[in-house]
Design brief:
By secondary structure, the chain is α/β, with parallel strands linked by helices. About 40% of the residues lie in helices and about 20% in strands. The protein has ten helices and twelve strands. Helix 9 links the parallel strand 11 and strand 12. The longest helix is centred in the C-terminal third of the chain and has 25 residues. The protein is globular, with a radius of gyration of 20 Å. It starts with a strand and ends with a helix.
Length: about 325
């Protein structure tokens, strides 16, 4: 019987890899550099070589490994075909089959945000629930949906693209996706800074942000916690748009819990309390008591979810 699985989370800069027991205990985790040159053609070979090295180090035979789960930054079809991963230089090809041929082990592939959601449901902030929606607030805004313990992929591999819900109907700037008014434009780390700058430019309201060159989303939250007016307005605007978005999702999914992750979530309960305030205002009454919780696995959520993808087979 197989004793181990590997979880892999491919990012634009690094690849995170975890070795787990078949019961789900993490044995080891490490990172390698993501080589995106020449269309990312070295990435899967590098992953295979790193896993081979770890097997040798731990004296584990391949017959003891159930398989490899892998999260990638882009849409993925059920058969493991990735549908362009721009940050990696990948086009359309079956990453599961390709890695499996190189290393000689079964491989399952999913979208990285979906893997993070699955990981948080399994061993993180969503543990104990089987229906969760995860929203990741970082450089962009991503998401993942898990219903009855299974990832919802959608027909086009785009289920959970929460960051591209239209919530700002008077937005004039264009999102990276080509639309205008996406949640990502106001709820990402870059969006938070952009909104704060709008408030600063609107009038001469005193603000400590005016004294911080190149301020970040973290600075906005830090100053808001101290009572800075412009920072508080920015955080409240963020909370309102997230409240609207989660309210829309609740009417369709009605999850057990919402999980908030990503770098912006480090603002902690201050962020959650602000979202909850607006969520209750904007949500259908049957769903108003749905808890909103912080993710707990941090950067390891993706490898946990990828491992779970294999364990659940």
């Amino acid at each position: 019987m197989a004793k181990y699985v590997f979880g892999v989370d491919i990012g634009g800069t690094t690849v995170k890899i975890g070795l787990f027991t078949a019961e789900g205990t993490m044995v080891d985790k490490w990172e390698i550099t993501t080589r995106t040159d020449e269309g990312g053609k070295y990435i899967l070979g590098d992953i295979a070589a790193s896993i081979e090295d770890k097997l040798a180090e731990k004296q584990i035979d391949k017959s003891e490994v159930k398989g490899i789960g892998m999260g990638v930054p882009g849409p993925v079809k059920a058969d493991g075909t990735v549908l362009r991963c721009v940050n990696l230089g990948w086009g359309i090809f079956n990453a599961a089959d390709e890695l499996s041929k190189i290393i000689g082990l079964p491989v399952k592939v999913g979208n990285d945000a979906n893997m993070a959601a699955l990981g948080e449901m399994w061993q993180g902030g969503g543990k104990g629930f089987s229906n969760i929606v995860m929203v990741t607030l970082g450089t962009g805004v991503g998401g993942g949906i898990v219903l009855d313990g299974k990832i919802v992929k959608g027909t086009h591999g785009a289920a959970g693209e929460i960051g591209h819900m239209s919530v700002v109907y008077d937005e004039t700037a264009t999102c990276n996706c080509g639309k205008k008014g996406c949640l990502e434009q106001v709820a990402s780390a870059t969006g938070i800074v952009k909104e704060a700058k709008k408030f600063l430019a609107a009038d001469d309201t005193p603000s400590t942000l005016r004294n911080i060159d190149g301020f970040t989303a973290k600075d906005v939250f830090d100053e808001a916690k101290k009572g800075d007016d412009i920072s508080l307005k920015t955080v409240n605007r963020l909370g309102e748009y997230l409240g609207i978005a989660l309210g829309h999702i609740a009417c369709v999914i009605d999850p057990d819990v919402f999980i908030i992750g990503g770098g912006v979530s480090k603002a902690g309960d201050f962020l959650i309390d602000t979202i909850e305030k607006y969520y209750v205002e904007k949500t259908y009454h049957q769903c108003r008591k749905t808890p909103i919780k912080l993710a707990t696995l941090g950067n390891s959520a993706g490898i946990y979810g990828a491992a779970k993808l294999v364990i659940s087979e």
